[in-house]
């Protein structure tokens, strides 16, 4: 008797859903937008990078993607993105607050400047608040939805990134956990994704060297999980899980995508010293 091959069903995990992804013109956001669309989701690409934002939307196609210029530091921009989404699609199921900046690579609290603190907090923290606020405005009456925040492994392990960046990502995780309680009353999930270093444009900006080859060596050497490299696709898959119905009872989670990196506290410094020859200051 000939063996039969198993035919797996084509399953679009976000079929019929609508999502806003901030910071979706590049990196993790762009990869997530593509993946969400592949799973049947209408995606609003919200970003300040008009050129790349339009490019990602055109690549995905008008049936599934729309670009909206949005600076998350400005509440009216976020409000406009949500209002436009609801006007076009009639609802909002998923808000992925992903836009973020690293700021300057200050290695000491003594170097912290008001300008850099304001930039990082206005983008990473105020932006997350505005995204959650205006998503909740639509999701609470519907009594359903998923809010996802991009945090960082720096929210769980300390002394590696700048004080400003670390504090901003800890604030995002705190906001997420608070919203888990508040929005859970209405059946709305709130979760974070917290990746290890990925050498996107943002990732490179917080490395102690701008030589990409050396940066790759540092990231690989510091990783607790050998033989594999974290990619934007990995983070997008985690966001897909948190956005979909498979995680219907998952809320308040800071999902670490770090290969166990946060179980240690010295690997990154050791790697910097090994690769760069004794560099003292690090950011990641």
UniProtKB/TrEMBL annotation:
UniProt keyword list: Oxidoreductase
InterPro entries, sorted: NAD(P)-bd_dom_sf, SDR_fam
Keyword Oxidoreductase part of the UniProt annotation: yes
A Pfam family reported for this protein in Swiss-Prot or TrEMBL: adh_short_C2
Gene3D superfamilies per UniProt: NAD(P)-binding Rossmann-like Domain
A molecular function GO annotation: oxidoreductase activity, acting on the CH-OH group of donors, NAD or NADP as acceptor
Family: Belongs to the short-chain dehydrogenases/reductases (SDR) family.
PANTHER family associated with the record: 3-OXOACYL-(ACYL-CARRIER-PROTEIN) REDUCTASE (AFU_ORTHOLOGUE AFUA_6G11210), SECOISOLARICIRESINOL DEHYDROGENASE-LIKE ISOFORM X1
Listed name of the protein: Short-chain alcohol dehydrogenase
Organism of provenance: Ipomoea trifida (Morning glory)
Gene: SSP
């Amino acid at each position: 008797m000939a063996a039969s091959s198993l035919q797996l069903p084509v399953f679009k995990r976000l079929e019929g859903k609508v999502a806003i992804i901030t910071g979706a013109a590049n990196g993790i956001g762009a990869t997530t937008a593509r993946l969400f669309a592949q799973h049947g989701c209408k995606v609003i690409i919200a970003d300040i990078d008009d050129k790349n934002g339009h490019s990602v939307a055109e690549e995905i196609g008008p049936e599934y993607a729309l670009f909206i210029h949005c600076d998350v530091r400005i509440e009216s921009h976020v409000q406009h993105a949500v209002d436009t989404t609801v006007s076009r699609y009639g609802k909002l199921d998923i808000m992925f607050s992903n836009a973020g900046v690293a700021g300057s690579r200050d290695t000491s609290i003594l170097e912290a400047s008001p300008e850099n603190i304001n930039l990082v907090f206005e983008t990473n923290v105020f932006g997350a608040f505005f995204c959650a606020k205006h998503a909740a405005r639509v999701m609470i009456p519907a009594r359903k939805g998923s809010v996802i925040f991009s945090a960082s492994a720096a929210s769980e392990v300390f002394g590696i990134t700048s004080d400003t960046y670390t504090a901003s990502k800890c604030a995002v995780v705190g906001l997420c956990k608070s919203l888990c309680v508040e929005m859970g009353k209405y059946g709305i999930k709130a979760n974070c994704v917290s990746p290890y270093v990925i050498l996107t444009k943002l990732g490179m900006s917080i490395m102690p060297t701008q030589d990409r080859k050396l940066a790759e060596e540092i990231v690989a050497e510091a990783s607790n999980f050998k033989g594999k490299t974290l990619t934007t696709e990995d983070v997008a898959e985690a966001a897909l899980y948190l956005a979909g119905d498979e995680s219907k009872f998952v809320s308040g989670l800071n999902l670490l995508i770090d290969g166990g990196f946060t179980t240690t506290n010295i690997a990154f410094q050791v790697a910097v010293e090994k690769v760069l020859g004794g560099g003292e200051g690090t950011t990641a």
